[in-house]
Design a protein that fits this description.
The chain is mostly helical and about 270 residues long. It is built from 14 helices and no strands. Helices cover about 75% and strands about 0% of the residues.
């Protein structure tokens, strides 16, 4: 890839002094971005190492409430984590995720998408574990706290963390805690259940997301990432790359481009 980049910039630089200067600026910006990305991926490796150490620690990690009992503060911290992770996902990773061309298999790298999906699963498992391992008298308080965090995430346009929390409360070990659930105010349960309703391909969530995108000013919008990936997968699998007459199916690639461009715009501020 870098060899191709050098060949292209060398040819462009030979055209004129102005072009040479522009190519130099572009390459410098690319090198800086790659440097930041490399540091981020190294940080992910360190996080995985620490998680492994905590998993074998007989004392285990401290409880969530002992670290933070403010639902808004927790939601903000989750949003910071989400923003950091989506900022390091480039459009090329979506292409590499779904490519079937053997020519690209040796350069396929989707580290940041995989890390983001793993973050969702880990956080969801953490929420469920916190609720199930808490003392019986504290379970309803902890469950209500996480529901409050989820609702605050919605206000911050952080739908991924919201869905991770709701996914945790929907797990069998949590959903079977009938007495605990009965102590939660019904309006909170109704609000989160309504927004995560999977009917009509999550139509309620999609309407809420579209409304957030329309009303936002400088805020990030963090979508439910697994559903976003599903949408791209559907477009890629249900439409062929070429038409019956052998010409390129530009409509398919235009639809994929719109999806990825929209994702990039969601994580960018004005």
């Amino acid at each position: 890839m870098m060899r191709v980049l050098r060949d292209v910039t060398k040819k462009l630089s030979a055209l004129s002094t102005e072009t040479k200067k522009s190519c130099g600026t572009l390459v410098q910006g690319l090198i800086q971005k790659l440097s930041v990305l490399d540091k981020y991926e190294q940080a992910l490796l360190e996080i995985n190492r620490l998680c492994l150490e905590l998993s074998v620690d007989p004392h285990g990690p401290p409880s969530i409430l002992s670290l933070c009992d403010d639902s808004l503060l927790m939601a903000r911290q989750l949003t910071h984590i989400e923003v950091e992770r989506i900022n390091n996902i480039g459009p090329e990773e979506f292409i590499q995720t779904f490519t079937k061309d053997p020519e690209f298999f040796d350069v396929k790298k989707t580290t940041n998408i995989e890390a983001y999906v793993e973050w969702f699963n880990r956080f969801s498992s953490l929420v469920a574990t916190e609720i199930c391992t808490a003392e019986k008298k504290q379970r309803h308080r902890l469950l209500e706290f996480f529901l409050d965090v989820a609702l605050e995430c919605i206000k911050l346009h952080n739908y991924n963390s919201f869905m991770a929390i709701i996914a945790a409360t929907s797990m069998t070990p949590v959903s079977r805690l009938k007495k605990t659930l009965s102590k939660i105010p019904s309006y909170k349960l109704h609000e989160v259940e309504h927004l995560m309703d999977p009917c009509s391909n999550f139509s309620v969530y999609r309407e809420h997301l579209a409304d957030s995108i329309q009303k936002r000013r400088s805020e990030y919008v963090i979508p439910f990432f697994s559903l976003f990936i599903k949408d791209i997968y559907f477009v890629n699998e249900c439409h062929k790359n070429k038409r019956q007459d052998g010409t390129v199916n530009f409509e398919k690639f235009w639809a994929l481009s719109r999806q990825v461009t929209q994702f990039i715009s969601w994580k960018d501020t004005n």
